């Protein structure tokens, strides 16, 4: 039996509940995957088509016409490497940000840790990331890019991107319950965030004295080192990665605490 008691001062985070309800997390994750591609002609192929078509457009506009530098890497795989982790992040934030409102029937009927809902939306994005990664491997083979030991860092970078997406998406999902304007603001914020991240351009393009500004964006260290892990042409930028990790954990802790504080009112206003 679960006893729900109000907190008198500090809001308990109760992160252990996530492990206790891990089967529900698994169910919600696969529910999101199935619902996303239900009654679609191409199904899960959309996970590959989205970054692939975007890469083609970026390669024509920025690679050929604009002559964008790409750190001595063929621009198509340079762009796809950035889009791979970016598409996962942006879709995870968007889906998790709208997840609570979309699951109002569950929230008002039964008790379970509400954190599981945005967490399930982010976890579902990992399936799309795995499918799109197959295309990345094919492109690397086509362009003759050899895998190095640096690729062993990929799980760490994916985990960091997952935690950042969870933190941002969790916070937006809680705000979205109270302020429905958030659902309209999310696509706009995501679009601006992409241009503020080194997706279509390398960090080396900026003058060195201004790179610290770009490093304040936690995605900078993640995307930059994700490419390094894939192609192994440069040494890891541990400074940017450390800044990204620090900001990610601060965002995650703040988001969990804020989510818990707002959680008590979800059933009343959703």
Describe the 3D structure.
The protein is an all-alpha fold and 270 residues long. It has one domain. 69% of the residues lie in helices and 0% in strands. It has 13 helices and no strands. Helix 4 crosses helix 11 and helix 8 runs antiparallel to helix 11. It is globular, with a radius of gyration of 20 Å. It starts with 15 loop residues before the first helix and ends with a helix.
User: Main β-sheet, in a few words?
Assistant: none
Structural class, judged by helices and strands? mainly alpha
**H and E string:** HHHHHHHHHHHHH
Unreliable stretches: 6-10
The number of helical segments is: 13
Write the layout of secondary structure elements.
Layout: H1 16-20, H2 22-36, H3 46-65, H4 75-97, H5 99-102, H6 104-107, H7 116-142, H8 154-178, H9 182-195, H10 211-215, H11 218-231, H12 238-263, H13 266-269
Helix pairs in contact: 2-7, 3-4, 3-7, 4-7, 4-8, 4-9, 4-11, 7-8, 8-11, 8-12, 11-12
